[in-house]
């Protein structure tokens, strides 16, 4: 059984929480006691219908403000796969949450209120989905019940969104449009009864049928931990534990250790004592090598046929996530996967004005919370990253403020 | 009420047995290894429940053929089911892991906490103090716990590495963004991190894992005969710790526990489930949620978030 991770984004009041609640309801992921609690809460709020949005609107502070303020993770499954929804808010101030929620996901669901059409937010969602290179975007044109299930209105919105998408979409990104009403369950898990003119698949079917050709990515294995039991049974055992970030490794593969450049061959690939012939991306394994080479945490094993050049100066796109702005000349801790290094911002090339649809502002002195820009970093030690565009799993990093220990930004290697 | 939910949903069938997504295990093992690499004194918080038993299994796998490189800490409220305590001792012996036990009774004797009174008295809230004291005593900087995001709304937003201050407090606004699989465990002296490797697992995932891994679990998860009382529409296990009203007369019922907490705050469910497949079948029928059997959560809608701010998980 596989897992499909989905990010949702929308503006305030476009019915996102209702959509997710409805999806849970229709996949029978809500237990009876929760439905009873929902009935009681809906009545308390003076509503004459079941408010499914109450299922996902979590924290106390949020309930007071009546908006979602953080990333919430929601789970449901079908016989085919497990789904994880990262529900991210559509607020202007919360780009940081949207980027956080969308990292890791393969599908981005963008909500548009059929009455309001395309908003400033819609472009932001598209921009972020594309920046993160999310391969599939589903545009949910919601609240169709409030526009009389009009095909004309749907097409208008579709054209407007497509025009936005054209500006930022990348080759191979798939964009699908679905007209729906979350409140009445139109085009959620079953074909809409109100919109016979729509011939596409309802949302759940679209998700169930989504599969990605895992394009051959280079093999990357960051070493997390050296396993040396030093027991009698495993006296000379020396294994390298880690999670393969991309590509695959097989027993007998010639590998290179970065940064030392030493070469060796894979002797075994193990999972709790089970010997594997081959292991692929996202698998946590222990690799042993045929020869004694010097490997420690933070090193990376790569296939010798697809090795990496060390980077000491990194040009990257940054999304800033801290209330203290990014300043040129300041030193941060750069964490790339499980490896880290001090890194100094030596140039702030530009800032992208997402609101005004992707215009570039040169000569900026700082990047504020939720702003996106291009910077150059000089690192204290070499970093072995791919370009994000080429291999996302090995092309992103975070910046940490060494005074507060906070994660203050995320970078995508250009 | 207007029935806005009448759209047929019967065509969507529930998941079948035996489908554990292995990606969840890989992710949890990765997190365990990061804990050992990034922290000096990690500890696994062991409750005797299925989630913490799952954590022990994952820790075994993460460091094999080495041993589990951190101790297990159990905060014993004194109101635990005897079956749980027995299982705890057996598991520690079986895995060779170091076991540390600290007692809520000691915190009561030291005058740090006061026993609750009344018919809803429980030591559930009291254990926070014992836990924080143990963290201070051993200078633990990372506490691995078995919380899952599907349990409760406040947990849906929890991070995998959740930073707590000196007082164990959780602040939703101070949580760090977690991007891709990069975990930032940098903390100041006095702070610690709660780590949740099975954040992305659901209750069903845990049971499927237990089944596929053929793991042992305490006997009270399976159907058995027990003296219970009926209160607030739930079945409460009768024990010397439960304060009963005169009209609450214990009777025998065939029950099992869906979650394992204290005897005073865990409700039993009537059940004939004697095998794992029966248990999984019950979960799939979705009659009652897991935390629905937690009496303490029912005290108020925002109960969990409030306890979390105070240093509970």
From TrEMBL, chain A:
For biological process, the GO terms are: sulfur compound metabolic process
Molecular function in Gene Ontology? ATP binding; GTP binding; GTPase activity; sulfate adenylyltransferase (ATP) activity
Domain of life assignment: Bacteria
Q: Where is the Tr-type G domain?
A: 1-219
Q: What Pfam families does the entry give?
A: GTP-eEF1A_C, GTP_EFTU
Any idea which UniProt keywords this protein has? ATP-binding, GTP-binding, Nucleotide-binding, Nucleotidyltransferase, Transferase
- Write the Enzyme Commission number(s) for this entry: 2.7.7.4
Q: What class of enzyme is it?
A: transferase
Note the InterPro entries from the entry.
CysN_GTP-bd (IPR041757), CysN_II (IPR044138), CysN_NoDQ_III (IPR044139), G_TR_CS (IPR031157), GTP-eEF1A_C (IPR054696), P-loop_NTPase (IPR027417), SO4_adenylTrfase_lsu (IPR011779), T_Tr_GTP-bd_dom (IPR000795)
Q: Which NCBIfam families match?
A: CysN (TIGR02034)
| Record-given protein name | sulfate adenylyltransferase
Its taxonomic placement starts with:
Bacteria, Pseudomonadati, Bacteroidota, Cytophagia, Cytophagales
From TrEMBL, chain B:
An annotated GO BP: sulfate assimilation
Question: Which EC class does it fall in?
Answer: transferase
- List its EC numbers: 2.7.7.4
Q: Which InterPro entries match?
A: PAPS_reduct_dom, Rossmann-like_a/b/a_fold, SO4_adenylTrfase_ssu, Sulfate_adenylyltrnsfr_sub2
Give this protein's Gene Ontology molecular function annotations.
ATP binding; sulfate adenylyltransferase (ATP) activity
Give a yes or no for keyword rRNA processing in this entry. Answer: no
Report any Pfam family annotated for this entry.
Answer: PAPS_reduct
- Determine if Transport is one of this entry's keywords: no
Entry keyword set: ATP-binding, Nucleotide-binding, Nucleotidyltransferase, Transferase
> Where in this chain does the record put each Phosphoadenosine phosphosulphate reductase domain?
42-267
**NCBIfam families linked to this entry:** CysD, PRK05253.1, PRK12563.1
The UniProt similarity line reads:
Belongs to the PAPS reductase family. CysD subfamily.
Q: Write the protein's name.
A: Sulfate adenylyltransferase subunit 2
Species: Arcicella rosea
């Amino acid at each position: 059984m596989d897992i499909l991770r989905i990010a949702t984004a929308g503006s305030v009041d476009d019915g996102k929480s209702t959509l997710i609640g409805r999806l849970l309801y229709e996949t029978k992921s809500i237990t009876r006691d929760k439905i009873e609690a929902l009935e009681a809460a809906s009545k308390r709020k003076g509503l004459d219908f079941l408010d499914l949005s109450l299922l996902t609107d979590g924290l106390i502070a949020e309930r007071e403000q009546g908006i979602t303020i953080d990333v919430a993770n929601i789970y449901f499954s079908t016989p085919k796969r497990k789904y994880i929804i990262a529900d991210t808010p559509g607020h202007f101030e919360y780009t940081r949450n949207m980027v956080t929620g969308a990292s890791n996901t393969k599908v981005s669901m963008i909500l548009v209120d059929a009455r309001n059409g395309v908003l400033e937010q819609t472009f932001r969602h598209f921009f972020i989905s594309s920046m993160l290179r999310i391969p599939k975007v589903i545009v949910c044109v919601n609240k169709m019940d409030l526009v009389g299930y009009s095909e004309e209105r749907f097409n208008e919105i579709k054209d407007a969104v497509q025009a936005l998408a054209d500006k930022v979409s990348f080759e191979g990104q798939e964009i699908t449009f679905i007209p729906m009403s979350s409140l009445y369950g139109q085009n959620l898990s079953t074909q809409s009864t109100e919109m016979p003119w729509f011939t596409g698949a309802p949302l759940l079917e679209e998700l169930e049928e989504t599969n990605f050709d895992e394009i051959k990515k280079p093999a990357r294995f960051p070493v997390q931990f050296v396993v040396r039991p030093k027991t009698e049974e495993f006296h000379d055992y020396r294994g390298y534990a880690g999670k393969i970030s991309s590509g695959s490794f097989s027993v007998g593969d010639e590998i290179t250790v970065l940064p030392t450049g030493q070469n060796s061959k894979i002797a075994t690939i193990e999972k709790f004592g089970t010997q594997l012939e081959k292991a692929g991306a996202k698998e946590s394994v222990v690799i042993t090598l045929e020869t004694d080479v010097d490997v420690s945490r933070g090193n990376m094993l790569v296939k010798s046929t697809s090795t990496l050049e060390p980077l000491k100066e990194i040009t990257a796109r940054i999304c800033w996530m801290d209330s203290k702005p990014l300043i040129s000349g300041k030193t941060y801790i750069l964490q790339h996967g499980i490896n880290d290094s001090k890194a100094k911002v030596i140039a702030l090339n530009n800032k992208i004005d997402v609101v005004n649809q992707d215009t570039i502002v040169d000569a900026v002195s700082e990047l504020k919370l939720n702003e996106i820009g291009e910077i150059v970093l000089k690192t204290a030690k070499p970093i072995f990253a791919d370009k994000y565009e080429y291999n996302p799993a090995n092309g992103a990093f975070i910046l940490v403020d060494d005074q507060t220990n906070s994660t203050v930004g995320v970078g995508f290697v250009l | 009420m207007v029935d806005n939910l009448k759209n047929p949903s019967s065509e969507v069938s529930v998941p079948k047995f035996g489908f554990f997504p292995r990606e969840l295990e890989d992710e949890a093992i990765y997190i365990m290894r990061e804990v050992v690499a990034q922290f000096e004194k990690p500890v696994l918080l062991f409750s005797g429940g299925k989630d913490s038993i799952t954590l022990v299994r994952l820790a075994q796998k993460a460091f094999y053929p080495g041993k589990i490189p951190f101790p297990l800490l159990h905060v014993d409220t004194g109101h635990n089911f005897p079956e749980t305590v027995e299982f705890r001792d057996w598991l520690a012996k079986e895995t060779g892991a170091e076991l540390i036990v600290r007692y809520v009774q000691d915190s009561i004797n030291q005058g740090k906490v006061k026993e609750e009174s009344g018919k809803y008295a429980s030591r559930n809230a009291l254990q926070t103090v014992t836990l924080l004291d143990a963290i201070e005593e051993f200078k633990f900087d990372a506490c691995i716990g078995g919380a899952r995001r599907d349990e409760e709304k406040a947990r849906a937003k929890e991070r995998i590495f959740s930073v707590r201050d000196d007082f164990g407090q959780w602040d939703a606004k101070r949580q760090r963004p977690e991007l891709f699989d990069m975990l930032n465990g940098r903390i100041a002296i006095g702070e610690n991190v709660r780590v949740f490797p099975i954040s992305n697992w659901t209750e069903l995932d845990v049971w499927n894992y237990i089944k596929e891994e053929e793991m042992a679990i305490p006997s009270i998860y399976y159907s058995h005969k027990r003296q219970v009382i009926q209160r607030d529409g739930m079945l409460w296990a009768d024990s010397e710790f439960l304060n009963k009203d005169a009209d609450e007369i214990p009777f025998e019922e065939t029950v099992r526990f869906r979650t394992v907490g204290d005897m005073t705050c865990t409700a039993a469910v009537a059940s004939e489930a004697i095998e794992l497949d029966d248990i999984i079948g019950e979960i799939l029928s979705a009659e009652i949620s897991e935390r629905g059997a937690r009496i303490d959560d029912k005290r108020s809608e925002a109960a969990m978030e409030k306890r979390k701010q105070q240093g509970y998980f």
